Amino acid sequence: MTQPISLSRYLVEEQRERGKIPAQLRLLLEVVARACKGISHAVNKGALGDVMGSAGSENVQGEVQKKLDIIANEVLIEANEWGGHLAAMASEEMDSIYVVPNRYPQGEYLLLFDPLDGSSNIDVNVSIGTIFSVLQKPEGGAGVSEQDFLQAGAKQVAAGYCVYGPQTMLVLTVGDGVVMFTLDREQGSFVLTQEHVKVPEDTQEFAINMSNMRHWAPPVKRYVDECLQGQDGVRGKNFNMRWIASMVADVHRILMRGGVFMYPWDQREPNKPGKLRLMYEANPMSWLIEQAGGASTNGHQRILDIQPTQLHERVSVILGSKNEVDRVTAYHANV
Ligand code: AHM
Ligand code: MG
């Protein structure tokens, strides 16, 4: 029987054999994984711990924070601030960046996260997750500022998510494909369960919140209309639909079996480019999808090429199976 490969061993071997992961980055990823284990534990407790329901506060985007949003945020900060691998962190749940306090050494990396994505699903026991993105602090310049974070997604040095579902899984890229680890609760460690993850180029499954259809722009409406026509329509095949309302769970399904995920701009809030956040939701997910052979655009350009201008910037997202993403993007060409 082959020995299971733990996340720690995978990272050490990647560092040793491919020189892919510098020691500081390896430490960072181990710490993020450890924090995710803690979050998984809190999520699993549910009503048995004091973790359910609203925290009675709002985040910078004006969204009500759940207790678990705040717990997950604190777990990630406390786990990461003292190790010497980070200069600063940014989170969906914090207005501005969190600079590593002076009492700890400062590292060269920047960590961004959505501590608990899909939080509308917390209280109904549906899969949720933590999304993270790692950037290198630009060279030169003393201290660290929000400006240092404003780098295109193509500059990420690691990205991933942890999904808290029937299994807790950590999905990771360091630019060398996508690997998946499953939490072995008896051993307390993440174990490698899938390598060479590949998103099929074609799919017959799409994911979008259909209740917003009347607000969509014509290219998105056209694409979904054509899918709904099924085998008698222009696409000549039937499509299935899924919408979990947890991006982590929807993207995980797409990594496992293909599909296209869309959270496009819509007319409900015409001044916002979309609902999802570029730097700690769309960028890490887009890199994972691209690393697995899929594609990700905002309808007009590759998401990873977008130069952010704000930490909490929003973006329209179309990602997944390459041929479908290319089709939706082409429909935007003349708009
Ligand atoms: P959150 O970060 O506040 O949880 O919001 C992001 C989530 C995504 O996980 C999901 O794709 C989307 O919001 C669902 O939105 P909606 O409820 O509008 O369908
Ligand atoms: Mg989110």
Shape: globular
Structural class: alpha+beta
First-to-last CA distance: 57 Å
The share of residues in extended strands comes to 15-25%
In short:
The chain has 335 residues and is an alpha+beta fold. It has helices spanning 7-18, 23-45, 67-80, 146-149, 218-228, 247-257, 278-291, 322-331; strands at 54-58, 64-66, 86-91, 98-99, 109-117, 128-136, 158-164, 168-173, 179-184, 189-194, 205-207, 240-241, 260-263, 276-277, 295-297, 314-315, 317-320.
Question: Any overview of this molecule?
Answer:
This protein has an 8-stranded mixed beta sheet, sandwiched between helices. A 5-stranded mixed beta sheet has the order 12-11-13-17-15, sandwiched between helices. With 335 residues, the chain is of the alpha+beta class. The longest helix has 23 residues, at 23-45. The radius of gyration is 19 Å and the shape is globular. The protein has helices at residues 7-18, 23-45, 67-80, 146-149, 218-228, 247-257, 278-291, 322-331, and strands at residues 54-58, 64-66, 86-91, 98-99, 109-117, 128-136, 158-164, 168-173, 179-184, 189-194, 205-207, 240-241, 260-263, 276-277, 295-297, 314-315, 317-320. The protein has 2 domains: 7-194, Fructose-1,6-Bisphosphatase, Chain A, domain 1; 205-333, 3-Layer(aba) Sandwich (D-Maltodextrin-Binding Protein, domain 2), CATH 3.40.190.80. The structure holds 2,5-anhydro-1,6-di-O-phosphono-D-mannitol and magnesium ion (MG). Residues 92, 114, 117, 281 line the site of magnesium ion.
